[in-house]
Amino acid sequence: MALNIDREALEKACKQIIETILFCLPNAFKGTVYLIGRPPEMIAQRVTSGIFDSERKNIFWGLPEKSEYNPPGKPWSAYRDEPGRPLEAMAWCVERQTSWTAEDPRNDIRSLRLQMESDFEHFHHMEPVLIRKRDLFPGGESNLESARNCNGEIVWKGSEFMVVAVIKIHFQPHTIKINSPETSVIKRLSMALGTELLSYQLKEQSLEAIRQLAENKLNSYNILSDSLRNAITKSGLIFYLIKLEMGFLREQWEGILLHSDQRGMKQEAINRLNAALKNIISISDALGSDMVDIHDRFLGLSLPPERGERWICMQIEGRWNELVRDMELEGTQVKEIQTAIHQLKKSLYLGKDPEILASYEEMPESLKRDWIDLIYGDTDSIDFDHINRLIEILENPLLHLPYQEKSKRSLKNLKALAETMNELEKNTNVVLRQVLNGSNDEVNSGILKRNGT
Q1: Fewest beta carbons less than 10 Å away: which of 169, 317, 397, 447?
Q2: Rounded CA gap, 236 and 408, in Å?
Q3: Is 151 exposed, middle or buried (0-12, 13-18, 19+ CB in 10 A)?
Q4: pLDDT tens across 271-290, in order?
C-alpha cells in the first residue's frame, strides 16, 4: 500500500471519520472507507463499514459477507473503465481524483451493476482521499511505477496528489444531490482523514528517526524537521473542523429558537438579491453567475455574527456597490438591494437577539448566557478550555438540541486528536533541542516509552 500504517490505527481512523460524517449528516445512514494501494496495482480494499441502527443511535461495524472489495481487495485492472464492462464509480474517483454522486441510481451510468440487480435505492456519494505525493515520498517518487488506463495513458500524470483511500456514504432515497452542502462536508472531512492517515505514517517515520539519533544527529534532525513539522502544520485542519462543528451547533440552536419566518430570513434576503440581479443583468454571463455563486456560497456557511458580517461586506456588499456604481442604478432598485443586504446581516444576529432569547423559556438564563457566549464568540480564539466548556454544556439535557449527543461525540473526538498532535509537537520540540544542544539518552528514552516503543 502507499501508506505504511498499523492496521488497528488505520481501522480506528476510518471508523472515526465514518462516525463523524454519519453524525453530521442526518440523511446519511451508512459509510465505508476503501484503502487504495500504491501504483501500478492500486488495489482497492474495503477497510471497514458502519451502518446506523433504525433509531440512529448506534453504529454497527463490519464488512459484508460478499464483496469484490473485501480483503485482499480488487486490483486496478479489474475496476478501471474498459469497453464492454459496466462503469464503476470507484474507477472515476481513483483515476480522476474527484467525487461521484449517485443522486438518481436508476439512471446513473456508474450504477449499472446495481441496476442489473434491480437495486434502485443505492443513493450515495463517493469522495477520494488525496495526499500530496511529496508528503508520502519525501525522498522523491522516481521509483514509483505508474498505473495506466485501458488506453495506455498514465494515471495521475501531472497531478501532485495520490489517491490513498475512497469514502463512500449512503443516503436515504432522494436526499443527496450533486454539489450539495452534504457533499461539501464529506469533501472537507476527507481532507481530515488524509491528514490523519499521513500523520500516522509520519509518526512512524519520526519514531524511527529518533532511534537513529545516536548514529547521525544532523541527519536525524533533518528527518524530524521535514516529517514532523509537516504533520504539525496540517494539525490546523483539526481546529477548522471544530469550527465547522460549532457552525452546526449554531444551526441546531437557531432551529429550535427561531420561528419559521426568522429561520428563513437569510434565504429570503438572498432570493431578493438574486431577483434584483436578474432585473439588472443576465445571470448567465460571467459577472451574474459569479454573484449568484457567492450568494449560494454564503447560504452554505454558518459563521459567527461578526465574522459573517465581515464576509458579507467583502464578498457581497462590495460587489453590489461596484455593480450599482457601474450600472448607475438609483431609486427603488438601490433601496431594494440595500434592504436585502441589511436583512442578510440582521439574520446573523437572530440567534443571540435579546428579545428572542427572552421569549425562549426552555432553559435557565445562566445556561442560556453561557451557551450564547460559547457558540457566537470569536472562533479565532478556540482553545481546549473553550471546547471543554462546550462539551460540558452539551451534556446538559436542558439544551434540547436535535443532534446534541452526536455533536458532543464529534467534539470529544476532535479534541482528543488535537491533544495528540499537541503532545506530538511538545515531544518533537524536546528532541530537536537535544539534537541541537547535545544528546540526552534519558530524555529520548522517556519520549520513546510515552509513544509505546
Answers
A1: 397
A2: 20
A3: exposed
A4: 999 888 888 887 667 888 88
Distance of CA 316 to the CA centre of its chain: 25
Domain spans of the chain? Answer: 7-188, 244-402
Q: Answer whether the bond into residue 40 is a cis peptide, omega within 30°.
A: yes
| Contact of 82 with 151, CB cutoff 8 Å | no
Q: How far is CA 85 from CA 80, 98, 109, 253, 379, in A?
A: 10, 21, 12, 49, 50
Nearest to 375 by CA among 399, 397, 398, 356: 399
Average pLDDT of 40-52?
94
SS3 per residue for the chain: CCCCCCHHHHHHHHHHHHHHHHHHCCCEEEEEEEEECCCCCCCEEEEEEEEECCCCCCEEECCCCCCCCCCCCECHHHHCCCCCCCCCHHHHHHHHCCCEEECCHHHCCCCHHHHHCCCCCCCEEEEEEEEEHHHHCCCCCCCCCCCECCCCCECCCCCCEEEEEEEEEEECCCCCCCCCHHHHHHHHHHHHHHHHHHHHHHHHHHHHHHHCCCCCHHHHHHHHHHHHHHHHHHCHHHHHHHHHHHHHHHHHHHHHHCCHHHHCHHHHHHHHHHHHHHHHCCCCCHHHHHHHHHHHHHHCCCCCHHHHHHHHHHHHHHHHHHHHHHHCCCCHHHHHHHHHHHHHHHHCCHHHCHHHHHHCCCCCHHHHHHHHHHHCCCHHHCCHHHHHHHHHHHCCCCCCCCCHHHHHHHHHHHHHHHHHHHHHHHHHHHHHHHHHHCCCHHHHHHHHHHCCC
191 or 2, higher pLDDT: 191
d(CA 24, CA 407): 8
Q: Which amino acid is at 315?
A: Q
Q: Which of 32, 34, 31 is nearest to 45 (CA)?
A: 34
**CATH number attached to the domain at 7-188:** 3.30.450.40
Cell reading at 365: 438564563
Q: Please report the pLDDT score of residue 216 as a whole number.
A: 56
